[in-house]
Amino acid sequence: MKKLIIWHGELTTRGSLQRRGYSFLSSGMLWLLFFLVLPSLVLVALSFASRGSYGEVIWKFTLENYTRLMGFSVFGWTPDYLFILARSVEVAFLTTLISVIFSYPLSFFIASRPKNTRYLWLTLVIVPFWTNIVIRAYAWFLLLAPEFPLAKLATAVGLIPPETPLYPSAFAVYLGMVSMFLPFVTLPLYSSVERLDWSLVEAAQDLYSSRTRVFFKAILPQTMPGLSVGIVLTFVPAMGTFVIPDLLGGAKYMLVGNLIQQQFGASRDWSFGAAVCMGLMVLTMISLQLYRRRGEEIDLL
Amino acid sequence: MKSNKGKDLIIQDVDKSFGSVHVLKTVNQVVKAGEFFTLLGPSGCGKTTLLRIIAGLEIPTSGAIILGDENITSLPANKRHVNMVFQSYALFPHLNIYENIAFGLRSRKMNAAEIERRVSYGLEMLALEPMKKRMPDQLSGGQKQRVALARALVNEPDILLLDEPMSALDAKLRASVQEELRRLQRKLGTTFIMVTHDQDEALVCSDRIAVMSEGNIVQCGTSEEVYDYPCNRFVAEFLGAANMIQAKRVDGGVQTDLGFFTLSKIPTWSEGLITIRPEWIRICESQPASNGLLVTVEDSVYRGTNFDLLVTPGNLRVRTSSYKHFKPGDQIWLELTATDLVALGE
After folding, report:
1. DSSP symbols for B125-183
2. Same domain for A79 and A29
3. pTM of the full predicted structure?
4. Can you tell me the distance from the alpha carbon of B2 to that of B117, in angstroms, rounded to the nearest whole number?
5. What are the pLDDT digits (tens) for B83-127?
6. pLDDT of amino acid A295
7. Cα separation of A215 and A203, whole Å?
8. A52 and chain B: CB distance < 8 Å anywhere?
9. Terminal alpha carbon distance of chain A
10. How far is B232 from chain A (nearest CA, A)?
11. Is the distance from CB of B304 to CB of B244 less than 8 angstroms?
12. From CA B130, how far away is CA A81, in angstroms rounded?
């Protein structure tokens, strides 16, 4: 006889509960299977195929795409692709860092507003989402145009020659990236800051902590859950972003997202594109793993 | 741990407002070095605000806090040699017990050997040695409180502040912790300033009690002084049950609706209240020589250690030992001894 258990006032068996659980999960799992797991597997397979003369895929196993990504070609070794990958990591890292640095004061500011105006401030943070990213990028064109104060200021300081816009440039890319990803850090961070136990902050002050120590020992550990969500939500998409660097960075400021887009688009080299995708995925996973490891160390300290 | 360094705390004309709310109204008080001082009052009387001002977590609107011969009014909390046990204990949830206790010492960048020595002493003093590797959420309320105490005391502060330290403990534990706290304070000789709304806690622990109401210190004295000689109705009633009798001053005593009574201390007013604690009213076999009152028992409430008799006239409460039984309707003689009757001020 099957062992009966009581579950929320219902007499049932473990097996029946399990079946019910799977039936609830099945739709989501099928969706992920068909639209995430299978395409990813295709991508893995594709990265080991090669390109025919007309851009078609030739299903013959080869490591050529990966050696090419590492920079080896018939003309010798160039670090171009590796450089693009490294720059993508750098841009994603700095974008995340700048967003975090901006988000802390912003979240504390919003959390300290009276209840009735707090939602207005939160709405202001979300407002940019209401506009398409491409339109926002073009708005930056306008703001960075030579006639506008930012470019004039840069000219006056001597950073750029007169009558030139501030784009395309690394500065414009960061401006666009941070403005795009800031809400992804601010919102989860705010939810942590709002629930902050201030008595811990006071206890740290009472126990002779400097401001820095109060932040690292009383505020950071408490806001870690929100911060982690924000970091992952920013870093992962920032690694693969291509609209902003394409529009604000110009052709010379290529990131891995642009490279992938180019392979699947203009170059019609799907198999190499898939290999770059794999490279991006591996890098993202390594970064997240490093972050997790680092996080545990912080906990242990 | 060193014994007290003998620094008196002077609270001088301290005034505090939050917006339009006047929380402290020009409070003056001296807390002597090495005493267990308690701020007692109902919620909202400003006692916690005063404690936080001493800790440096609030800045007074005006007035000064002087520790020893140093004015510390505007000294931030992290520079004050004063430590606090928070109401919710505020232990760092991501640090184990050892690290929680070492927190203040690490902030002050003490050398490792000194930290080890002091934390070990703190762990031993509060019987926390076996749980030093545990995390705060694995401890019971009483253990958490001991960690909070150890965390503050290892810093050897001039003053230890305790904000409602028993409020998170259950009633049974509270009684033993009160005595333990008192013993600890006697042993260390550190000045303790405790905030509480529980009169038993205040009476058990303190050398001196300051009773607060609406931003003022109404009365300050030893436990006996404030309990036996309350200065007004608020203090009398806040510190326990008290019978109130309306009285007029006459030659040699007071005249009340219940008759004439002599008082060992003749009141200064011409009309006011006199009070007597229920347990001080004596039940007599026959009419006493003076200050006697014949009453009828209305109700008798059994309270374990004693009976509370409610009697008329006067609606008095009389606390009597439990071996002697009275029924409603019984007529008894009471003696309201002259030394136990206290005239209250305004």
Report:
1. HTT-GGGTTS-GGGS-HHHHHHHHHHHHHTT--SEEEEESTTTTS-HHHHHHHHHHHHH
2. no
3. 0.81
4. 13
5. 999 999 999 999 999 999 999 999 999 999 999 999 999 999 889
6. 62
7. 12
8. no
9. 52
10. 36
11. no
12. 57
Cβ B233 vs Cβ B218: under 8 Å: no
Rounded Cα gap, residues A263 and A279, in angstroms: 14
Bridge-based pairing state of the strands B191-196 and A10-13: unpaired
- The amino acid that residue B185 corresponds to is Q
In a domain, A86, yes or no: yes
Residues B38 and B151 both lie in one domain:
yes
Report chain B residues whose CB lies below 8 A from the CB of A213.
107
Which of B84, B88, B93 has its CB closest to that of A206? B84
Give every CB contact of residue A276 below 8 A, 6+ residues apart in sequence. A69, A81, A256, A259, A260, A263
* A231: nearest Cα among A85, A100, A89: A100
- Locate A230 and state its tokens: 């924000």
Domain extent at residue B69: 9-234
Cβ neighbour number for residue A289 with a 10 Å cutoff: 10
The partner residue sitting opposite B107, judged by closest CB among A200, A213, A299, is A213
Q: Which B residues, 12 through 41, put their C-beta within 8 Å of a C-beta on chain A?
A: none
Residue B71 pLDDT more than 90? Answer: yes
What distance separates the 2 farthest-apart alpha carbons in chain B?
75
Query: How many structural domains does chain A have?
Result: 2
**Residues A57, A271 contacting (CB under 8 angstroms):** yes
Residues B254 and B263 sit within 8 Å (Cβ to Cβ):
yes
Instruction: Give me the pLDDT at residue A298, please.
Output: 52
**Residues B247, B286: Cα–Cα separation, whole Å:** 25
Please tell me the distance from the alpha carbon of residue B116 to that of residue B124, in angstroms, as a whole number. 12
Which range marks the domain in which residue A165 is found? 72-297
Instruction: Judge contact between A262 and A276, C-beta under 8 A.
Output: no
- The residue among B209, B199, B198, B165 whose CA lies nearest residue B184 is B165
Pairwise CA distance, residues A126 & A123, whole Å: 5
Q: In chain A, what residues touch B151 (CB-CB under 8 Å)? A: 207
Residue B334: strand pairing partners? B283, B293
Residue B92 lies in a domain: yes
Return the number of CB contacts < 8 Å for A and B.
63
* Exposure on the CB side of residue A126, measured as CA atoms within 13 A: 10
- The interface predicted TM-score of the complex, written ipTM, equals 0.85
Say how far apart CA B203 and CA B226 lie, in whole Å: 9
